[in-house]
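Board notes (copied after class):
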Amino acid sequence: MHSSSQNGIHTVVQDRNWVKNSMPFGLLFDIDGVIVRGRQVLPTAIEAFRNLVDKTGKFKVPTVFVTNAGNNLRSQKAKQLSEWLNIKITEDQVVMGHSPLRMFSQYHNHHVLVCGQGPILDIAENLGFTKVSTIDSIRTAFPSLDAVDCQRRASLTNLSWDSSFPPIEGVVLFGEPVAWESHLQLILDILLSHGRLSDPVKEIPYPHLPILACNMDLLWMAEAWLPRFGHGAFLLCLEELYKKTTGRELIYTALIGKPSEITYYHAETTVQRYAASMGISNLKRIYMVGDNANTDIFGANLYDRYLKNRRLRAPRAIANQISGSLSRDVEAFVAGIDQAVNGTVDIGVEECLSILVETGVHSSDQTFAEHSPRDFLPVEEGLRQPTYCVANILEAVQLVLERESVS
């Protein structure tokens, strides 16, 4: 691990001699805990991005924002970032926690339950899903299933079920919902009935219905001085309740969002496309700047290992990789997507370097237990160690520009 106190790091001025078409690197930025804390822009963020744009506000370095948040459309997050940083950010520069679900087209025509906050129906449609239900529609069709709220239960006058409600064929979890108790109860009902709430099966099915889950952050940083629960906490509750109820492990068809290699693959292709729109080709390195060693840094290091192995593997057929359960063989899945989308396994980037900042979840003053997602355990300790550790995003940008000899 390298310290941010390296000699020679200096404030970057805007009249650098940038050489277009020869930029060998791109930048990936987490948002919460790196750029903002809740609704408050961190003090060094605006200055950091001034070093990456020209006098007209156009980016001079291929830059993409990678967040596990799932409560917005990409266009909404781009608008929010633009307002925070006073520069133009487009949706082509944004990877949300749910963005890689575009690749899971085999589920787009299934009737799925979607959970989260924000415009979840619009998000689902934008991703390609065509048949969608929400927890509210389940509660309406089967009013007696959600029995936790005593006042609501007492106020119900019609407890009849809608026998015409179509079976649920999959569960898509964008992010932590409101009213966890209702969501946990009804998701379990769907899994235990194989989606047939109006005509339950006699035996609990296993494997259960497909589950596509986004955002594995156990903790995230807002305005409060301590981290807040994220979607990873909700997933942990769901996993434990399912196991306690059935005696079996909950199976994720796919886990999307950092630290998943699938999300870093999607971020790589996104920054490559954005670089191409700038007239820059053949990026060889990407830097991930994040505040969470268990997601941002762990995921970047996992992807760096994947990149180092990618050139050694022969192209693989995609059919048997994405037609069924994904399991933990994420490298095989990503290789298959590469083959199908790009016609080749190698799309250019050779390494992914990680930079940990101390303005969010990670702090030198506080230590939290290792809390990587269940399906990524056990974690090699080295994979949680950043390539560099710096105080804030400004020092991260300065470090990259210095390392790349951009002057």
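Comment from the instructor: The two ends are 25 Å apart (CA to CA). Residues 1-18, 314-328, 342-346 have pLDDT under 50 and may be disordered.
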